[in-house]
TrEMBL record, chain A:
Domain of life: Bacteria
Gene3D superfamilies reported for this sequence: HUPs (3.40.50.620)
Organism: Gillisia lutea
Main EC class the enzyme belongs to: transferase
Family: Belongs to the PAPS reductase family. CysD subfamily.
This protein's record includes keyword ATP-binding: yes
MF annotations from Gene Ontology: nucleotidyltransferase activity
Name the UniProt record assigns to this protein: Sulfate adenylyltransferase subunit 2
Automatic annotation (TrEMBL), chain B:
Keyword terms of this UniProt record: ATP-binding, GTP-binding, Nucleotide-binding, Nucleotidyltransferase, Transferase
Enzyme class: transferase
InterPro entries noted in UniProt: CysN_GTP-bd, CysN_II, CysN_NoDQ_III, G_TR_CS, GTP-eEF1A_C, P-loop_NTPase, SO4_adenylTrfase_lsu, T_Tr_GTP-bd_dom
Stretches assigned to the Tr-type G domain: 1-221
Protein name per UniProt: sulfate adenylyltransferase
Pfam families: GTP-eEF1A_C, GTP_EFTU
Enzyme Commission number, as recorded: 2.7.7.4
Amino acid sequence: MKKILENNVLESEAIYIFREVVAQFENPVLLFSGGKDSITLVRLAQKAFFPAKIPFPLLHIDTGHNFPETIAFRDKLVKELELNLIVRHVQENIDNGTVTEETGKYSSRNSLQTATLLDAIEEFKFDACIGGARRDEEKARAKERIFSVRNDFGEWDEKNQRPEVFDMLNGRIELGQNVRVFPISNWTELDVWNYIDKENIEIPSIYFSHLREIFERDGLIWSASQHVYRDEDELVEKRKVRFRTVGDITCTAAVESEADSIDRIIEEIRASTLSERGARIDDKRSEAAMETRKQQGYF
Amino acid sequence: MEVLKIATAGSVDDGKSTLIGRLLYDTKSITTDKLEAIEKSSKKKGYDYLDFSLATDGLVAEREQGITIDVAHIYFSTNKKSYIVADTPGHIEYTRNMVTGASTAQASIILIDARKGVIEQTYRHFFINNLLRVKEIVVAINKMDLVNYSQKIFDEIVGDFKELQRKSEFKDQTIKFIPVSALWGENIANKSEAMPWYTGETILQYLEGLRSEDFNEVTPARFSVQTVVRPKSESHHDFRGYAGRITGSSFKVGDEVTILPSLTSSTIEKIHFFDEEFEEAPAGSSVTITLTDEVNVTRGDIIVKSGEAPEGTKSLNAVVCWMDMKALQPGTKYILQHNTQNMAVKIDAIHENISTDYSGNSIVSSLKLNDIGKVGLKLSKPLFADAYKNNKANGKFILIDAHTNNTAGAGFII
Ligand SMILES: Nc1nc2c(ncn2[C@@H]2O[C@H](COP(=O)(O)OP(=O)(O)O)[C@@H](O)[C@H]2O)c(=O)[nH]1
């Protein structure tokens, strides 16, 4: 039997984008959060350059408020694939006074990541930052380009974006500018899960159903962690939950779930009616929350 | 899963956003939290219906003005296909966005307000779809509820559109006319009971029925090299692979190939995809190819099957859609990006401005933002391109302003 490659449109598109990045930029980096989207990016990057190693480093902006499972997973992946990992800490920006820690009930270090990211871009002179954002996540992201130019301050000028015509990507920039690149722009949450399933990609354990100490607030389920502010009347209990996204522990809510395998997660998502970012408290602040953060240089 | 890329075109208020919102709703692609947000916003505005357009108009400025000004990408899926919709604005001053949105589309939905019929905007939308050679077109005649679901009005609009169709040079397209009410979900995913006289497909049925043969063109195979893979590791010491994406048709191991622009020949030794080797890889796939001979191949080179090579030329004529604030002038220089290669070009002449409403062409001395015109270009080195009408993938380019780095225009080689 003749062995004929079956084309996966979204996968081929992502690989094409990765190769354009390496050809057009001098110093790209992959922003790695430890979540399923950035893990998927790593697999796609591997495919794009095989048998060569991934020709750029990974950058993790560490808020210090992590799920320990994610960090363990990250380190294992880096070792197995012989990746070059750079970690920069939000704590450092807090210590040197360039950002101020939020206080109160909804305090989170999520938005503080931006300053640390911009510092790292400057420190290493990165000209392209590859991220796992998808257009289906949020309506401001629906307008995002695949190559999205940011100015010296990391700001996104959404009304003045370069037209992206055909499949041709224009990565020309001035010194000081950089480009955010989104290879899985056109994937949906389900596409990512189906890919993880088909490719047998390992993901951190917190994506699967597990028993966890939680408390409820505003109808959402929060991890009872030293990093998450909790009122006295917010009672801790144990429940079977899993996470649909893996961000900073202070802004990532869990969902009740029995899904303990990729198959069951996919089944659950198919049936589910709560969108992925619905469990992200950072978007709930206002209708334009995401757009505002993006203008300021967020991922 | 099959992926279908669709563009939508319509004038402001024809109901484009509502129609897309409907498709999302009827395919259960809107989640409860998004729906709640839509309900909340609709109520705040005092509507007694759900304003689905809120699901798609992403930017704050757009929500304020209630219009779509940039291309937004929207996703929904059924058991059969994943759909990617590029929602584009309809005004003449957004021609560039329409071209951008349609440039990746395999099918288009053109909206017409049943009360207004075929208007100048419709001409433009149809023109752009023809310029880009989108093969599958659905003309959705919307707001049928506001014209008493009248078959007569529908038939008149279809007649007018067919009149327009006669003016187009691009004949290889399929056009379907469907009477709909986006607001009430009639003939979007569910058949309308109010229009028993219409026995055809709903919009979703039509899209679901499209096969990849219907919307993908088959043309000679081209492989633009993106980057050279050289691991230089112990285990792959001499590996030298060419990474790129195949267009047009498949490549097979053993194919005799010619490398452009050097015109050297070789044979495909292996086709790699990740850690596997394949004997054949189809159009659309991103692979790494190794050749039997040690030839010099770099980024920007095009690998084609021997005997199927396009001619190289240092001057070409093209239709250009201008996308920059600074007008395109004869004598000026730009960077031309043709797939993976860049070269300096000089604008030799601007032959004419093409009116997008089929009212004829005019002689002009420059092309302004959103103009479409015929342009002559002088290239700094030979380009091995095809005419867009024969090979979309190898017949397109963009022009980049070297001073601002902006993508200033999109070109279709004649
Ligand atoms: N009666 C009626 N109104 C509609 C229909 N489709 C859209 N509309 C209304 O027309 C207006 C414009 O729709 P919108 O989707 O925002 O148009 P867009 O500018 O093309 O995106 C809104 O007030 C819609 O509620 C329809 O089929 N029937």
